Each structure stands twice: as structure tokens, then as C-alpha cells.
Amino acid sequence: MWSKRSRFFIILALSVAFTVDLLFHILPQLYQRSIRSQCTCDEPSRQSAAPRSWGSSHQAGGRSGAAQTQILSQDSGPFKLRKLFSHPFYQTQRTPSDQLLRRKDAVKYYSYKAKRNNRQRKKAQEENITAPYYSSRVYLNSNWLKFQLAIDRDALYPRSDPLIDRLVEDLAGLGITEADHTADEKALNGKCDCKKVVKPSGIQLKILLKFQNFGKATFKPMKQKREEETPEDVFYFVDIQRHNAEIAAFHLDRILDFRRVPPVAGRRLNVSKEIRDLTRNEDLKSTFFVSPANNVCFFARCPYMCKTEYAVCGNPDLLEGSISAFLPDLYLAPREFIPHPWKRSYTFAEREEWETNPRYCEKIKHTPPYDRGTRLLDIIDMAIFDFLTGNMDRHHYEVFARFAKDGHIIHFDNARGFGKHSHDELSILAPLAQCCRVKKSTLFRLQLLTQEDYRLSDMMRESLLGDRLAPVVTEPHLLALDRRLRVILDTVQKCVRKHGQEDVIENDMGHVFDGVNLNSTSTSR
Ligand SMILES: Nc1ncnc2c1ncn2[C@@H]1O[C@H](COP(=O)(O)OP(=O)(O)OP(=O)(O)O)[C@@H](O)[C@H]1O
Ligand SMILES: [Mn+2]
């Protein structure tokens, strides 16, 4: 058998092997496990983990502290939301609607643009910029194109389609290939050849992002922390834009079943690597600087009011913001830009007619495009939506030109909502209060959202947990939604008392819910 000496060496070798295993495998694993059990796990890196979206897989990941704890405590995702979306009020079928785009035209147009981009790539490489190559394989099957192709006369996206959740995941996680000023900022600098210039965008800073799959989006950076309320003396037209309001508005619009806000996701960008290094726009590049606190900052270059005081800064590079999916290019789907009939005066002293004339709605009712179809009712839906968020900045609205008077309104630009949770701005409800009209479908859903099992604040809380920047808004803002919902329903009730149900409630649901007693879903709780 083995000598004493070789037995000694075998034991020694085994002890060394065990010690190595203990030191380098067992202990680190135990340590990791103990950390994981306590950690509030910060968001993992951008590309490695797309945010968990409610429509797809339901494991918790990519969440920060409080939000993650909350998700883990609810076994498998958004019970309440799923229950809401399967309620009969959310199942009504409309007749198949007109699509906005013809697939053939869209594919031809984007293929042309991809080819043009590929040609520019060559030039860019000569300038030492790495530009991406777009093959049709990259974009023909992508969620942004599917989203654009699904837009129809009734809404920007279909109900309960997992496509939207996948698109939101893309917005929050896909690799960015290029950054630029948005078209309206280019127009201000005289560099836009676009036929349809929208309007000056003042001090608001937005960035156009292009993704690796040829999709596009607008990024609005964080300017105000979630916890800050807009000070009382600030006028609505100089109020700051809030990225979290853009995100929350998308979720609210979906919960109300309007589906008129383009999909939005929250995301933290590395402003050096994902904006400065990826832009070929020298103007944009030149607005970057390092702050005294060593943070990377940049600002909007525009003809008035844009100085470094209005800059946004990363920490030191990371900056959170909202990313909104692009609607089809204006070449494919031109939009009309229409002044809002209840727009506010954008001066300190002047008043608009709707503020002084109690019969203003009568006049509007007889003015095209409000004299037929659902446009006026859509404006009232938008007033309800804006009252809930507290957004007073609705000066214009946009519709797809192709649908003319029959198309839905697009709820663009919701960044001035969620400013004050402690104040309900009743004047936003003027279209409803003055016209005393509301769609039955809207009213039914609003009433449903006051019920214990479907409470609006609970729906919003749950829905927003799906965003990477959760919690997107603070608790008082969520509770304000319930309070404001009651104000809306009280306004409708007053109208019904004055004019009768027939005159106030527009039956857009056919006879399916004829048996439902509006009072059985009453506002009082
Ligand atoms: N997701 C999008 N897809 C396509 N176009 C968009 C999108 N978001 C914004 N736009 C266009 O850009 C315009 C300005 O956007 P938005 O109002 O959100 O920015 P803003 O900085 O608040 O501008 P403003 O100060 O003019 O209100 C919109 O009216 C719309 O025409
Ligand atoms: Mn705006």
C-alpha cells in the first residue's frame, strides 16, 4: 500500500484543494447570496436587461429598491390591471377601422431611408464616426414598424396587444446608434428642410434618438425631481417639463382606454456615451460641458432663453428621462396642427373668450370640425385626461390628416402634468362643464375606476411599476387622481341634473350596456 509519506502528500493536496474551493467558490457564493437577500438591487446595465414589462415576462428585474420589493410581494404581476382590461367595458368591439399606413408604402419609404442612411454611413466612417448599417432584416420585423402599421382611425394602438409592451421594452433597453436635435429645434436654427415646422420649443430640451433597429424616439430629460411640486407663483406656460409626467400620462391614457398617447418608457442614459459621442450634430455637441460638480451637462441651443442655466446634467453621466416612440414620419402620415378651442392666453393679462362667455360652447358646437362626428367629444375626453394630470398647457392638438375630421386626437406632450398634487385646476374641465357632453364609454370607465377593485390610483401604481424608473410619480399624485375623478363625475352629475341624461351622455356603445344602471356605479364611496 501507500507509504506514510505519499499518504501525507495526498492529504495535503486534498486540504489545499478544499481550501481553494472554500476561498474562491463557496464563500463568495454564500456572500453573494447574503447580499442578494438584503439588496435593493440597482438597475442592471441598459442592454443586458430590458425592463420587465407587464405584457410579457413577469419576473422582477431591472427594478430599483421600493418598486422591486413591491413587485416581489405580488406574486405574478399586475392582477388588478389585468382584471381591469378584461372588464366588459374594455372588451367592446368597434367595427374594423381604417389603418393609417399602407404596409407597402411604409416598407418602401423606410427601405429607401435605410439605404440612404447606409450611404451616409460610408461618409461618416471616413470622418471616424461609427454609423450603423441597417439591413431590412433589422427593421421589417421590428416593434416600432409594427406599431406604426397598427395605428388606425380609432386609436394609436390596439387594446391588450403585447406589441406595445414589447415596444416599451425596446424604448427602455435597445442600443442607441445616433442622437440629434429634434426637427423643430433644427427648424429654429434654420437647418430643417421639413415642410411642416411645428412651433418653437422654447427652453424645452428634447433629443431625437435612433435605435439599432432603425426605430426613432424623442428623449425628454429629467429637469425636476419627482418629489418637487410646481411653486404656486409659476405660470403654466413657463412651468418646467417633467419627464415623469410623460411616462405617467402614457399609462393613464392606456388605463382610460383612450390610447392616444404614443408609447413612452423611462430610461437612464449615459449622456456622454449615448448622446454626445453618438451625435454628428456639431451644434448639439458644442452644448456639452462639465459642471463645477464634475457632472456632464448640456443645454438646448435655441434663439431665446437657452443658456447654461437651463442645462440638464447627468450624475456624473447618467441622466434619466422619458423616451417616446415616434409616430410615422410626416412624409408618410402628415398631421394637422390645430389650435385648441379652449386654449389659454399665453400672456399674463389677457383672457380667452371661453373664460368670459358662458355660451362659448354653443358657438364651438356649430363651428367645423366640432359640428359633427366625435371631435368635440374627443376634446372633452382630452379635458378629462388633462384635468386628471393637471396639465394646463394644451394650446394645440394634432390629428392625422388622412382621417380628416373623423380621426382621433393625438395626446402629444403631457410633460406639464403632475406638477401640483395638492391643487385641482377646475378650469381644465371647462369643455366638459360648458358643453355638458360626454361619451358613454368614457363615463362608464371613469365610474368603474372609482370602484374599490378598480381604483384609478391602484391601477396607476401597478401599471407604473412596470417602468424602469418606478416609482414614476409620488404617492400624493396618485391619490390626487382619485380625488379628481370624483370631481369629474360630480361635474357630469350636475350636467345630468340640469339637462337630462339623454342630452349629456352620448351613447357610443350601442345597446350592449343598456341594462347597466349608471347609478349602480355611483361616485360616492
Ligand atoms: N413621439 C413622437 N412622434 C412624432 N412626433 C412627435 C413625438 N413627440 C413629439 N413629436 C412632435 O414634436 C412636437 C413637439 O413635441 P412636444 O410638445 O412633446 O415637445 P415640447 O418640447 O413640449 O414642445 P413645445 O414647447 O412646442 O410644446 C409635437 O407637437 C409633435 O409634432
Ligand atoms: Mn410642449
Automatic annotation (TrEMBL):
Entry keyword Glycoprotein: yes
Necessary cofactors: Mn(2+)
Binding site for ATP: Q204, K220, S324, A325, F326, L327, E398, D413
Active site: D393
Origin: domain of life: Eukaryota
Cell compartments where the protein resides: Golgi apparatus
A Gene Ontology biological process term: enamel mineralization
Region (Disordered): 42-68
Name this polypeptide is given: FAM20A golgi associated secretory pathway pseudokinase
GO molecular function: ATP binding; metal ion binding; protein serine/threonine kinase activator activity
One cellular component term from this protein's GO annotations in UniProt: Golgi apparatus
Database matches in InterPro entries: FAM20 (IPR024869), FAM20_C (IPR009581)
Residues binding Mn(2+): D413
Chain ranges of the FAM20 C-terminal domain: 288-505
Keywords: ATP-binding, Disulfide bond, Glycoprotein, Golgi apparatus, Manganese, Metal-binding, Nucleotide-binding
Compositionally skewed regions (Polar residues) per UniProt: 42-59
Family membership noted in the UniProt record: Belongs to the FAM20 family.
Keyword ATP-binding attached: yes
Primary location group: Golgi
